[in-house]
Amino acid sequence: MTTQQAVYRRVLRRETHSPRTVSAVMVASLLFIVLIAAITGAVWWLMDAGFRDQATAWISAQSENGGGQTTLTATGAISVLVSLLLLVLALSPGRRARRTRTTERMALLVDDGVLADAVADAVAVRGGISRRQVSVTVGRRVVTVRITPTSGLPLDRAGAEAAVTETLAEIGFAATPRLIVAPRGVVA
User: Fold this and answer.
1) Taking phi first (over 0 means left), then psi (-120 to 50 degrees means alpha), and beta for anything else, what does residue 130 get?
2) What is the DSSP string of 70-129?
3) Which helix (H) or strand (E) holds 6?
4) Mapping DSSP to helix (H, G, I), strand (E, B) and coil, where does residue 177 land?
5) Among candidates 104, 114, 116, 85, which has minimal Cα distance to 22?
6) Residue 29 DSSP SS3
7) Is the model's pTM score more than 0.85?
8) Which residues of the chain carry a pLDDT beneath 70?
9) Rounded to whole angstroms, how far apart are CA atoms 109 and 149?
10) Where are the domains of the chain?
11) CA-CA distance, 2 to 8, in Å (whole number)?
12) CA angle (19 as vertex; 108, 79 as ends), nearest 5
């Protein structure tokens, strides 16, 4: 692998994956607030005997009344939910709706919306229908094409499927086409 290809790969990876900056800042801020509260409480505990006596009395009253168990249970449940949320944020792929191709001379980054427009245009031209009657959604592995035919005019389903397949092959991005034709047409 050449240095140029390594740079392409790194840049394309950065452009196709969303950053985790927001979640990292949120976690760091929460930990900072908890740390400051713990330090403040510890210093206050050491310096003020009245606070120490009040805190000890409140803790013993909570444990005697049984309210401490519900408080601990609620705190534990909230902690588990926050932990699961942070775990999902950390492990989810965080992919953007973009696709990449590289050659020895260049790297190409294409938004899925551009691919959808190209497929929709090709289907509209091949089917002889208005571009407004074709809707395309590009997923990870599947390109879904929804066609609303013109009322009273037959639609060449095989031609539309061929247009999708040919367009994707010409562009060079592999995906499985899925064609959905609306049961009712529009009035032209």
Assistant:
1) beta
2) HHHHHHHHHHHHHHHHHHHHHHS--B-SEEEEE-SS-EEEEEHHHHHHHHHHHHHHHHT-
3) helix 3-16
4) strand
5) 85
6) helix
7) no
8) 1, 66-68, 188
9) 33
10) 18-91, 98-181
11) 10
12) 150
**What is the three-state SS of 133-169?**
HEEEEECCCEEEEEECCECCCCCCHHHHHHHHHHHHH
What distances in angstroms separate CA 20 from CA 89, 95, 156, 181, one per listed residue? Answer: 8, 11, 46, 39
Residue tagged 């009273």 (tokens)? 152
Q: Compute the half-sphere exposure of residue 28: CA atoms within 13 Å on the CB side of its CA.
A: 6
| Structure-block tokens of residue 109 | 């980054």
How many of the other CB atoms lie within 10 Å of CB of 115?
Answer: 21
According to DSSP, residue 181 is labeled E
Q: What's the fold here for domain 98-181? A: Alpha-Beta Plaits (3.30.70)
Phi–psi pair at 177, nearest 5 degrees: -80, 145
What are the φ and ψ backbone dihedral angles of 164, each rounded to 5 degrees? Answer: -65, -50
- pLDDT by residue (tens digit) across 109-158? 778 888 889 999 999 998 888 889 999 998 888 999 999 888 888 888 88
Length of the chain: 188
